């Protein structure tokens, strides 16, 4: 199951990581799920509440998630995933990312930002049915 | 009351985005949700019966954990409960 999004949205989420460098950026992806994949229709930038350690941690306030979910539904969209950046670290999920991942069936997009410039962007699909069998599976990003 | 279900948990509510339940408190509402959709139990609660730490429950716009009566807060038929798993992470230990 691939992650599909427009060039504009792809550029947008990468640019967000450059703007917040050396801190981590984070955001919510709204769209639809089909048999072919997850289609991203809109991005919602979120504030990183981890001001104590924003260079290597992110946390999205639940209120922002609820607001995004409400707004998305009005347009017929659901939350299909999230994105964040890894300043001066690879675009690979970390033990912290994995431990804190609970949105099964959703995509977790990570962009490596090196010295302020967005480099590799990867996506991982959270699979499984619960905390005991969850896994991050690499996912193709189809920029359309 | 209406309980809004997040994307990852709809697999356990017959794909419903929201579920209407009877109940006079948050606890009763969640119990009614689990009664109607038993698979939700393990996703919302620990084996000891406590709400999982990464599961946020909002009564309208308020985090239930920070309400004076917490999960025993009274609710009316027009209230909305929203279940929203947390989102967090970071690049290194």
How is this structure best described in words?
The complex is a heterodimer of chains A (144) and B (93). With 144 residues, chain A is an alpha/beta fold. Chain A has a single domain (2-143), classed as Cytidine Deaminase, domain 2, CATH 3.40.140.10. Chain A contains 3 helices and 9 strands; from the N terminus they run βαβββαβαββββ. Chain A has helices at residues 7-20, 62-74, 95-99; strands spanning 2-5, 26-34, 37-46, 58-60, 78-87, 107-114, 117-127, 135-139, 141-143. Chain A has an 8-stranded mixed β-sheet with strand order 8-7-6-5-2-3-1-9. The longest helix of chain A has 14 residues, at 7-20. The radius of gyration of chain A is 14 Å and the shape is globular. The model of chain A has no long low-confidence stretch (mean pLDDT 95). Chain B is an alpha+beta fold and 93 residues long. Chain B has one domain: Beta-grasp domain (Ubiquitin-like (UB roll)). Chain B is 17% helix and 24% strand. Chain B contains 2 helices and 6 strands, in the order E-E-H-H-E-E-E-E. Chain B has helices spanning 26-36, 40-44; strands spanning 2-4, 18-20, 55-59, 62-63, 80-85, 87-89. Chain B has a 5-stranded mixed β-sheet with strand order 2-1-5-3-4, covered by helices on one side. The model of chain B has no long low-confidence stretch (mean pLDDT 95). The interface between A and B is medium-sized, with 41 and 25 residues. Strand 4 (58-60) of chain A pairs antiparallel with strand 6 (87-89) of chain B.
């Amino acid at each position: 199951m691939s992650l599909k999004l427009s060039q504009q949205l792809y550029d947008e989420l990468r640019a967000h990581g450059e703007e917040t460098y050396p801190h981590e950026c984070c955001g919510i992806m709204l769209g639809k799920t089909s048999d072919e994949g997850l289609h991203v229709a809109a991005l919602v930038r979120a504030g990183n509440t981890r001001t104590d350690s924003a260079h290597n941690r992110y946390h999205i306030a639940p209120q922002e998630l609820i607001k995004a979910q409400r707004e998305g539904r009005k347009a017929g969209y659901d939350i299909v995933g999230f994105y964040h950046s890894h300043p001066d670290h690879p675009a690979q999920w970390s033990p912290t990312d994995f431990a804190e991942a609970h949105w099964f069936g959703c995509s977790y997009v990570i962009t490596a930002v090196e010295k302020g410039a967005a480099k590799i962007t990867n996506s991982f699909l959270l699979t499984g049915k619960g905390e005991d069998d969850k896994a991050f599976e690499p996912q193709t990003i189809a920029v359309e | 009351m209406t309980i809004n279900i997040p994307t990852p948990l709809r697999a356990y509510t017959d794909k419903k985005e929201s579920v209407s339940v009877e109940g006079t408190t948050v606890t009763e509402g969640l119990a009614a949700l689990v009664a109607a959709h038993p698979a939700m139990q393990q996703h919302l609660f620990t084996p000891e019966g406590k709400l999982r730490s990464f599961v946020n429950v909002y009564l309208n716009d308020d985090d239930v954990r920070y309400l004076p009566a917490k999960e025993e807060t009274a609710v009316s038929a027009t209230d909305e409960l929203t279940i929203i798993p947390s989102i967090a992470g970071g690049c290194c230990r």
